[in-house]
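Worked example 3 (structure in, sequence out).
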């Protein structure tokens, strides 16, 4: 599998406005154990479908400009330790916001991976459910998915249906 300092990367998209507020650099990781029906990224379910890179290298790529960061997949928490290390590095060395998408719910993440909540600003949670998909949903694929503003592990606010200023 992957070490704490290596990530399998499906792709990095620079200067995109589709993965969160404003222009962002989006990191798409490979590997996903959830396998949502009608997933848009099935080609990345196998972790080895991506290119192995060090966390330092990914950090450099994501921070080659002033844009904030989005982390999607695949399932980012499948590579939890290196994703956590990357988020820590971003927060310790920049003032960028981090959005993270996970097929797991906030409740599950709080139980299994609470530390990540100290290093992200927004969490989009829940599996993609095709029968709950709507064409104009902002930043999520289906209506069961929620958007959370994260201040820390104890201060998390549901902003799914609200307009907000980031």
């Amino acid at each position: 599998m992957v070490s704490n300092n290596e990530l399998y990367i499906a792709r990095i998209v620079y200067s995109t406005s589709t993965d969160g507020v404003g222009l962002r650099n989006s990191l798409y990781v490979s590997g996903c154990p959830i396998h949502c029906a009608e997933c848009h990224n099935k080609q990345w379910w196998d972790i080895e479908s991506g290119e192995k890179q060090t966390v330092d290298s990914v950090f450099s790529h994501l921070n080659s400009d002033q844009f904030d960061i989005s982390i999607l997949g695949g399932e980012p928490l499948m590579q939890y330790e290196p994703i956590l290390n990357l988020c820590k590095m971003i927060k310790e060395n920049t003032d960028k916001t981090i959005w993270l998408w996970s097929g797991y719910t906030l409740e599950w993440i709080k139980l299994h991976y609470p530390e990540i909540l100290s290093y992200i600003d927004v969490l989009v949670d829940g599996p993609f459910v095709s029968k709950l998909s709507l064409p104009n949903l902002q930043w999520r694929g289906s209506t069961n998915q929620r958007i959370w503003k994260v201040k820390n592990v104890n201060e998390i606010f549901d902003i799914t249906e609200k307009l907000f200023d980031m």
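Notes: Helices lie at 55-62, 80-93, 106-112. The longest strand covers residues 6-16.
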